[in-house]
C-alpha cells in the first residue's frame, strides 16, 4: 500500500506537500501512447496508412502506427520517433489532434493515447519498412479496426476536413508543381463534396498565393493544364491576416 505524501505542518504552511517525488509516485500509473493517422492522396482518393495488428485477438485487423511514450520524451518527439521507426521516413509534418481516453479502449487495461495527424505525398515519400503488412487503404474502404482506431481515423478525418479550410496544409499531399484540376480533386476528395470549377479557381486566384510556373502537364489523357506552385513564403508573411477558404 502506498504511503500518503508527507505534508508540512509547521510555520503556517499546513497542507503543503513537501515531497513531490513521493506525490507523483502515489499517482495511478496509466500507460500513455501515441497513434499516428497518416493520410495520403493517390488516384484522386484520400488514403490512410495502416499496419496489420500483431495482437492475437485482433488477428487480421488493421491498426494505426503507434507505440508507448518513453519516460524521457515529450509527445511531439514520441510521435516523430514512432513514425520514423514504423515507416523509415523522417522530416514529416505531424500535428497533434486530441486524446482518446475511454477506459475500455484497450483489452489489456487502461491506456490513454494521443492522436497525431500527418499528410504524406505518397509518390514523394517511399515507405522504407514493410513490416506487419504496412499498407495504404482508402479512407472510405475501412470499417473494422483493432482497438478504437476506426473512431480515431474518423475523428482525424473530420479534423482534416476543417483544417484544410483554415490552412493550406493539404498541399502537402500534392506534387511541388500541380494543376488546378489536381488541386480541386484533392479538396473534393477530402471534403467529400463536388465543387464548382469556376468558383473554386476564382477563390484560389483571389488569395494570390499561386505561382504560375509557365509549365504544362505532360503524359495526361486530357488537355494539359498549367502547372502552379503554392507560395508558402508569401503565405507565412500574411497568414495572420488570412481567414481561410470558404467553399460555401
Would you give an account of this structure?
There is one protein chain. With 248 residues, the chain is an alpha+beta fold. It folds into 2 domains: 32-163, Nucleoside Triphosphate Pyrophosphohydrolase (Alpha-Beta Complex); 176-238, Orthogonal Bundle (Arc Repressor Mutant, subunit A), CATH 1.10.10. The protein has 6 helices and 12 strands. Strands 3, 4, 5, 6, 7, 8 and 9 form a 7-stranded mixed beta sheet that branches. A hairpin with a 2-residue loop joins strand 3 (32-42) and strand 4 (45-52). The radius of gyration is 23 Å and the shape is globular. The mean pLDDT is 88.
Q: Over the alpha carbons, how many angstroms does the gyration radius reach?
A: 23 Å
Helix content: 25-40%
> What CATH architecture label of the largest domain applies?
Alpha-Beta Complex
Give me the secondary-structure category.
Answer: alpha+beta
Total helical segments? 6
H/E series, N to C?
EEHEEEEHEEEHEHHEEH
The overall number of domains is 2
DSSP, total strands? 12
CATH homologous superfamily annotation of the largest domain: Nucleoside Triphosphate Pyrophosphohydrolase
| Biggest sheet features | 7 strands, mixed
Amino acid at each position: 500500500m502506498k504511503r500518503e505524501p508527507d505534508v508540512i505542518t509547521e510555520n503556517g504552511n499546513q497542507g503543503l506537500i513537501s515531497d513531490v517525488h513521493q506525490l507523483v509516485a502515489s499517482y495511478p500509473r496509466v500507460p500513455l501512447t501515441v497513434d499516428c493517422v497518416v493520410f495520403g492522396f493517390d488516384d484522386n482518393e484520400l488514403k490512410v496508412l495502416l499496419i496489420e495488428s500483431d495482437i492475437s485477438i485482433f488477428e487480421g485487423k488493421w491498426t494505426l502506427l503507434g507505440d508507448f511514450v518513453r519516460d524521457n520524451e515529450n509527445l511531439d518527439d514520441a510521435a516523430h520517433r514512432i513514425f520514423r521507426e514504423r515507416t523509415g521516413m523522417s522530416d514529416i509534418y505531424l500535428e497533434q489532434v486530441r486524446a482518446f481516453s475511454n477506459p475500455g479502449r484497450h483489452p489489456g487495461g487502461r491506456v490513454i493515447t494521443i492522436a497525431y495527424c500527418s499528410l504524406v505525398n505518397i509518390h514523394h515519400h517511399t515507405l522504407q519498412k514493410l513490416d506487419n503488412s504496412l499498407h495504404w487503404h482508402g479512407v472510405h474502404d475501412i470499417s473494422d479496426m483493432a482497438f478504437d482506431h476506426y473512431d480515431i481515423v474518423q475523428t482525424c478525418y473530420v479534423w482534416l476536413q476543417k483544417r484544410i479550410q483554415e490552412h493550406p496544409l493539404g498541399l502537402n499531399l500534392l506534387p511541388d508543381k500541380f494543376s488546378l484540376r489536381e488541386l480541386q480533386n484533392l479538396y473534393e476528395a477530402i471534403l467529400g463534396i463536388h465543387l464548382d470549377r469556376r468558383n473554386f479557381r476564382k477563390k484560389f486566384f483571389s488569395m494570390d498565393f499561386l505561382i504560375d510556373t509557365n509549365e504544362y502537364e505532360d503524359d495526361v489523357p486530357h488537355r494539359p493544364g498549367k502547372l502552379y506552385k503554392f507560395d508558402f513564403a508569401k503565405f507565412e508573411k500574411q497568414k495572420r491576416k488570412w481567414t481561410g477558404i470558404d467553399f460555401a
